[in-house]
Amino acid sequence: MTHVIIFLILVFVVSLLAKRLEGTIITGPMVFTFAGVSAYFLAPPLVGRFSETTGAEAAGATILTVAEVALAIVLFGDATRIRLRRVLDRSELATRLLLIGMPLTIVLGSLVGYWLFAGRIPFWEAAILATILAPTDASLGAVVVNSKLVPESIRQALSVESGLNDGLSMPFFVLFLALAGIELHGFSRTWLQFTVMQMGLGVLLGLAIGWLGGKLLEWSEQKGWMHSGSHLIALLSLAILAWGVANSVGGNGFIAAFVAGIALRWAYNNAVDHAEEFEESWAHLLVYFIFYFFGLLAAPWLSHITATIWLYAVFSLTLVRMAPVAVALMGARLKPGTTLFMGWFGPRGLASVVLGLIYLEELSLIEVNENIILAVIATVLLSVLAHGVSAAPLSKLYARYLAGHDANAPEFA
After folding, report:
1. What is the pLDDT of residues 260-286, one digit of tens each?
2. CATH 1.20.1530 is held by the domain 2-55+82-186+270-412
3. Are 311 and 370 spatial neighbours (Cβ–Cβ below 8 Å)?
4. Angle at 393 between CA 388 and CA 399, to 5 degrees
5. Which of 296, 324, 378, 386 could make an S-S bridge to 105, C-beta 3.0–4.6 Å?
6. Domain definitions of the chain by residue range
């Protein structure tokens, strides 16, 4: 209960300062992550110290479902800002990032991890680590994808990438677990069946739930049957419903939640009017909760993070992300500064925390490779800080960079 009280006090304080912090180098995930770390070190009598084994394992299992729900809600909320027709018409950049950039990121991350850890991580476990850190985070990238300073085509590509790569990483994750001799509990299908069901059911159920939910919202609104505040509850239920239904039948809940948000925008004319309020009321609260407890759970491991692990974290956020993005965008005729900008803004956060918790859940801490957990913690912590600090300044710098170029450039298409 003490954790909840500290968290809620912090939520109240951040809410009071929300407008003042907007556009600065201080972000919500940064505040709550480092508050969680500080709570562990500065207030042990109040907060209590988690042990490095049972505490991290038990608490990690407890918040896994909350983390998954939070990620689904964030993806759903972000997707309601995307117009389906524009996604279909301007899908080239997002397709390049997802189908070329992401697999190359996993391959390069595996090679760098296997080389850097020099035998401490077998190759397939290095691939597991690379897959955990491959998805980008919509919540950490919110400053960029919501900034009017950044061209819509770039924001949309980054948003679609962060919305779908969470789900696309799951088949790779399961494959590498199997190749490393680890099998998911209750997993009885072939890898191909698993992949087809994850992708197919995720998309189909997301479209159906989002479209039908949007049409029913439109109809009820026209009848005058809804209160003003009931829209938020309805959107929350649709986000969790898409995630839960897809998961229950073998689909990917994250893909379903993201696609449901896009379909809702397509079917419900007023979806965008409620999207911002929905994110402010539900998504932000859950995201803050997960980052606070991530900091609390990460704190006991910090003393074990070596220089090699910090170096891997730096590589993961730079070379391992930026080189594949540069390859994926070859031929897209984008300016070099745009390629650098899109390469840098691939933050690692909620999705990596979720996959890391799944990895912990599937193995006991006796069997788990400690280097993988440490590398995930180091990379997410570094990303929260580096991407949080750089998001607003680099968005402004990028806008000034584009101001000197032709208005007919592909960035403005």
Report:
1. 998 988 888 777 777 767 766 777 888
2. yes
3. no
4. 125
5. 324
6. 2-55+82-186+270-412
